[in-house]
Amino acid sequence: MKYITAHIGKDLLIGHGTGRTVVQSMCNCDTNDIDAAVRQCLELYGSGCQLVRLTTQGLREVESLGRIKARLRATDVGIPLVADVHFSSEVAIAAASVADKVRINPGNFAKDHEVARSQFRVFLNECRKHGTAVRIGINHGSLGARITELYGNTPEGMQQAMAEWVDMCMEEDFYNVVLSLKASNVPVMTRAYILLQQWMEERGVVFPLHLGVTEAGNGDMGRIKSAAGLATLLSKGIGDTVRVSLTEPPVNEIRPAKIIAGFFDSGMTPQNFLTGDSNGTPSFRLQCSDHEEFIVKASCILGPMLVNKEIDDFSIQCSYPDREAGKEEIEQFKSDIMQATRRRITQCEYIACPSCGRTLYDIESAFNEVKRRTSHLRGLTIAVMGCIVNGPGEMADADYGYIGEGRGKVSIYRGREAVVRSVPQDKAIDVLLDIIAKDGRSTDGRPRRG
Ligand code: SF4
Question: Per-residue pLDDT averaged across 211-216, rounded?
């Protein structure tokens, strides 16, 4: 088996055998606001982030990325920078000479597939010339018609969409590559990565994997969803770098990511915390410094067992330095992880992007308000997305979407269809609730009979 190690910047290695899981995050400010971007990069670096990504939607942002990099290097901060490019091969090619790594989905380079392939070739050559690494990132919900017509919007489709680009990298003898297949649905995401890992192993060449649950949301649920998904893969030895995506300030992503990475890098297993087993219902006890550590570690232990359907129930206790975790806290965690792993749906499900330089409204407070007003809609999935360019594609299987359109304006979606456009943000939640009510889904999210 040939295991590939990606080299990013001066000395960051990602891949099998490096002995550690690399923790990364992404700025959510405007990349052209150099001061704000440098500030976020320094804050992330100071908290232990090893790789930071910035939105790079145009040539102006490529130039800004160069300035941010120069400012960081001038203060002796060598954290590698990743350009996040979505559609334009021209921008990706330009970014290859500035960034340490470029994240792209080559399928989006052009409508004509042959054109996309030839632009991808040019892009790889440019990366080779500058020693720049590549992440090929394909997300659930952004698969093209070529794939969905054959495989549907499925983990199999995600793996197949990736296969072609991996083959092209190998044809071009370009191996400085990391792959990702993210989804907000934990079982879909874990299945896609497992299929990709199996496919690579059958071919004898294993590229490093960047793991992430996209649009995981915020608060406890965002952390639990991410930890459950990442842990399901890391416990099988799948995955080399992680991002915990939260709709919160980027620095908040680092501690949960470090707890997850540390759990598996140090070889911990559920056995370390097991205190008993009663008729297939295991009991665990943890000692944690605070609530965040508890929910993340407990998700590392229980997430894989629930996703893999090895258990249907569990009991857990946790002691903090000054108290025992209360009954309500434990019950809420149980409800959250059952929902996150899709084993028991008792809540409204949320998909919320972490936001990035493309977001032109205050998504954090909008998301909290949407949650406050819709939490009774058990069984519904509501997406809150930062931009109209990628939001509709990335909200995957949501029933309704609240999507930032521009400054202060929101589009409301029902499934994949925009029902109302350009609603002022202060009226958008009322419009969303009105549509849900007219659809007969305002009591507990299920369609009304008759
Ligand atoms: S959906 Fe959110 S994270 Fe994705 S590009 Fe748009 S604003 Fe950025």
Answer: 93
Q: Residues 165-201: pLDDT tens digits? A: 999 999 999 999 999 999 999 999 999 999 999 999 9
Residue to probe by mutation, ligand 1, list 31, 248, 358, 388, most atoms within 8 Å of CB: 358
Residue 446 has pLDDT above 60, yes or no: no
Q: Please report, for the chain, the start and end positions of each structural domain, with discontinuous segments joined by +.
A: 2-255, 271-340, 349-438
Of 165, 174, 176, 246, whose CA–CA distance to 199 is shortest? 165
SS (HEC) of 202-237: HHCEECCEEEEECCECCHHHHHHHHHHHHHHHHCCC
Measured in Å, residue 323 CA sits from the centre of ligand 1 at 40
Q: Do domains 2-255 and 349-438 have the same CATH topology?
A: no
Query: Over 80: is that where the pLDDT of 59 sits?
Result: yes
Please give the pLDDT value at position 443. 64
| CATH fold of the domain at 349-438 | Sulfite Reductase Hemoprotein; domain 1 (3.30.413)
Question: Collapsing DSSP states into helix, strand and coil, what is residue 182?
Answer: strand
Give pLDDT, residue 448: 46
Q: How far is CA 95 from CA 77, 109, 159, in A?
A: 20, 14, 26
2-255: CATH, from 3.30.565.10, 3.20.20.20, 1.25.40.10, 3.65.10.10: 3.20.20.20
Ligand 1: residue whose CA is nearest its atom 3: 355
360 pLDDT more than 60 = yes
